[in-house]
Amino acid sequence: MANHDSIHDAPADDIALLRRYRAAFTQSREAILFFQHGRIFDCNPAALALFRIQDPTQLAKLDIVKLSPPTQPSGQRSDMESTAHIRLAFNTGQAFFDWQMRDLNGREFPAEVMLYRLDLPEGTVLQATVRDISEQEAQRQALLQRKQDLLEAQRIARLGNWVSDFERGEIRWCEQIYQMFGRPLGEPITHAIFMQAVHPDDRERVQAAFDAALRGAPYDITHRVVPPDGNVRTVHERGQIEFGPKGQARRMIGTVQDITEQKTLEHNLRRLVAILDSTSDFITMHGPDGGMLYMNSAGRRFHGLPAASVSDEWNPEQGWRRHALPQATRSIAETIRFFHPEWAAQRIEQKAMPTALRAGIWQGESALLNPDGDEVPVSQVIIVHYDEHGNVDQTSTMIRDISEQKHLEAELARNAITDHLTGAFNRKRFDEEIEKALARRRRNGVSTALILLDIDHFKPVNDTHGHDVGDQVLVELTQLIQNSLRVPDFLARWGGEEFVLLLPDTGMSEAHYLAERLRQLIASHRFGVVGTITASLGVTILQPTDCPHSCIKRLDEALYGAKHAGRNQVIGAPPIISTRDQVH
Ligand SMILES: Nc1nc2c(ncn2[C@@H]2O[C@H](COP(=O)(O)OP(=O)(O)OP(=O)(O)O)[C@@H](O)[C@H]2O)c(=O)[nH]1
């Protein structure tokens, strides 16, 4: 603009040419600037607009350095960098470079700059063509970001994509696949290299799937890969073939997903379920609403439900599935009533569940109903699992049939208080009973009687027939006595061939009468090969001042009296009354 007057001095053709150039210069959408010694002396309207130069007369004062920020994105100082480019343009005639520019309003933008050295009659000047590439740059950045996001998403999903271009005969893997297959990044890939990475045991299957895909079948296969580090991974591959117009396979596009962790989890879970299924405890799992999701084999056997395999009950996509479980197990309330007797159901609802929900676990005893409706005692553990928000996620129960244990416990308890040969109570139990009887006597004055019974001449029975026969006599005698007692009467083996009876609410004459009846019963009974035997009996009643020792002593004395008086008789103490003569 500063030099356009010179056009008038030129010949006509040149003038026409110059006008054309001038028009092109003026209308160019690219910013064109001329400068010399660092000062701009001409520029086109596009440059004025780009650099927001309002007043063209300012141009002459404008230092080229003013159109750049002090430093470039690279961190270099703009003045030093630009000097280098200008020097290059001077020396070689041109210099192309990307440059961060700044307009007079202070907006910075990236640009492509082309510097040309123009050797004109009036001296050497530089022409700068500046193209604002901020939009392209923004697009490039957005594209780069999208690519990075995609890579990141693929990395998170452990997903890689590949293309097999049959026409060009090349396979392209994304970075993820190189990593998954443990190949050096950028290595040219062939089908052979891919197959080499596939686990040897899976190669045949993968090749068959690939061949089928070439014939149009969907390529969808899970197989293992063995990277050079030897850490076997499991991948899921999916692919799709693109066919050309003549039906020829052009290329195949596919994805590879590393599902090693998922597979490991799946395997572990299957193993755990297998363990759950092999235990003899009954295990159930319930969803957040309490509906039953799973019952292990032991539970199914106990309740007479159809057996189930792990895959019937669980799969990786759907989790637990209610396989062949009764309708009535869809809610917690129904489930509890379905499996437990009423008292246990109430205990679980009112105590067990509230405790488990509060503390995460409850353990205690309850009972189950077997398919015949019989009650089976069980020990039960209820565990409540919570999710990360503190909501109930699942409830598990572990139930153990303790009928055997209960039976043993009862037997042990019985053994502790009974004589193992005769089944009568033992001395220890009698000691407790006499204490209670004495306390009762003192408290309410009700009479309690004691009878001590000793077989006469038992030694010869053993000596003649052997100890086993002697034992049998003791057992039979116990039965005989037991059968003639009332419910509250108490029989214990005092020791050897001696038995003691405690008879609540019984006075002296009544006790005497019973003792006499027993004596006659024994004397008239035939004890197998032994034939008949007799017994001597002592009788007494508890006195308010008695202690166990004093009453037993009295009883012992009465029995001694009966023995001394010739055996096979009843003696009461005190007073000493013999009844043999009365009965015979
Ligand atoms: N078979 C058997 N015999 C027992 C058992 N306990 C004690 N005896 C026997 O009972 C007999 C008791 O004998 P003694 O105390 O001499 O009295 P007895 O022969 O019954 O004579 P008197 O009591 O004086 O009439 C002994 O031979 C003991 O071995 C037992 O559990 N089984």
UniProtKB/TrEMBL annotation:
The keyword Nucleotidyltransferase appears for this protein: yes
Chain coiled-coil ranges: 126-153
Keywords, comma-separated and alphabetical: Coiled coil, Nucleotidyltransferase, Transferase
Cleavable signal peptide: none
Transferase in keyword set: yes
InterPro entries: Diguanylate_Cyclase (IPR050469), GGDEF_dom (IPR000160), Nucleotide_cyclase (IPR029787), PAC (IPR001610), PAS (IPR000014), PAS-assoc_C (IPR000700), PAS-like_dom_sf (IPR035965), PAS_fold_3 (IPR013655)
GO terms, molecular function: diguanylate cyclase activity
EC numbers on record: 2.7.7.65
Residues covered by the PAS domain: 173-217
Gene3D superfamilies linked: 2.10.70.100, 3.30.70.270, PAS domain
Spans traversing the lipid bilayer: none
Annotated catalysed reactions: 2 GTP = 3',3'-c-di-GMP + 2 diphosphate
Residue ranges of every copy of the PAC domain listed in the record: 219-271, 362-414
Domain GGDEF: 446-575
Matching PANTHER family: DIGUANYLATE CYCLASE DGCM-RELATED, REGULATORY COMPONENTS OF SENSORY TRANSDUCTION SYSTEM
Name of protein: diguanylate cyclase
Species, as recorded: Vreelandella vilamensis
